[in-house]
């Protein structure tokens, strides 16, 4: 019997995880990476006798695939991907491939911002009472977890790139946190294409499945008005009252003064917001979404409340690093788009020295203007090309400087800062011009602060 040939493009976490699962399930596996594969991943491939190549793509070995798993970082427009599709070879993402080998209950969380925090928080609540894995865009790959320890439940953080290459993938509970312009360079600079990509998370859902979404988000609300949706809808809101609705409607979550109220099928939880571990309006929404998932999966009210109060937060997301000479240093390296940085600046309650910059994904910075006028005293541009930032913000603050070194950016901030100020790394851009990824950027920031 001829084995199905699985070709994997990209030798990172998702690629190697898929290779391991594919081999275990009897596929003929070949992995190819145009860049250099990290030593730790090479060792795994060699140890498991999986054929691979790096720093090249051998087309003859790739184009005889039956199925191709493409790393989310590889754009569709790459010539090789076009050739693969022209041959009629199916291209899938890791979550599509892996989901075929599990019967787990899947919670899929997507949105332009807040995915990592909400996925981590949801996992934190659920793991108190359920066996649950955390994966997708976070932690160990979904494929590898299914192979090593197939949990009965998974919380997956899912990006639009991962959703672009699904066919049958279906989360039982989908969470759509928000949709703001991001990654438009991958979507022909057309916001509608990006919106459609996010809504692919519900394309295979039935009325037995759920969509938890932000009812305050105009983009989401408009899309739902004009498209027929099979899923059972559970909105959450800071401004609207969402109680149990008449026949067939399930309810949702809303903020009533200082309390979060979540109602599903006449069963209500009420939680005070005063002791929540995560601060800021955007985090109340993230906590509503996570709590609604937990309520659906029958987690006890007491467990949900306690979990919200003791959650530690996520590295690189408004992470307090140190206080030096009464100046707070805050690492928000995970803010890779404008909307994310908006939340960060909005939560600042001190004069702020803002470190910004990186690979601009077609950013429109105008929504930040009121916050910059109100809160930012100096801007440090940290990128290879800072021209757009200098032009956009040059007249808005007295001090604006540029550098290509994190250590220098932090030293400049240290010199400018006065007692009571805050230094905020919230780049609003991707990190790939000067750093390996946003984690590398955040760690370099923390190291530089600690070395002051």
From TrEMBL:
Source domain of life: Bacteria
Domain Mur ligase central: 109-294
Pathway(s) of this molecule: Cell wall biogenesis; peptidoglycan biosynthesis
EC number, as in UniProt: 6.3.2.9
Binding site for ATP: 111-117
Subcellular location as annotated: Cytoplasm
Main localisation: cytoplasm
Example of a GO biological process term: regulation of cell shape
Keywords for the protein's UniProt record, in alphabetical order: ATP-binding, Cell cycle, Cell division, Cell shape, Cell wall biogenesis/degradation, Cytoplasm, Ligase, Nucleotide-binding, Peptidoglycan synthesis
Catalysed reaction equations from the record: UDP-N-acetyl-alpha-D-muramoyl-L-alanine + D-glutamate + ATP = UDP-N-acetyl-alpha-D-muramoyl-L-alanyl-D-glutamate + ADP + phosphate + H(+)
GO cellular component: cytoplasm
Keyword Cell wall biogenesis/degradation applies: yes
Gene3D superfamilies named in the record: Mur ligase, C-terminal domain, Mur-like, catalytic domain, NAD(P)-binding Rossmann-like Domain
GO MF terms, alphabetically ordered: ATP binding; UDP-N-acetylmuramoylalanine-D-glutamate ligase activity
Record domain Mur ligase C-terminal: where: 316-429
Signal sequence, start to end: none
Similarity remark: Belongs to the MurCDEF family.
Function: Cell wall formation. Catalyzes the addition of glutamate to the nucleotide precursor UDP-N-acetylmuramoyl-L-alanine (UMA).
The protein's name in its UniProt record: UDP-N-acetylmuramoylalanine--D-glutamate ligase
Organism for this UniProt entry: Gelidibacter maritimus
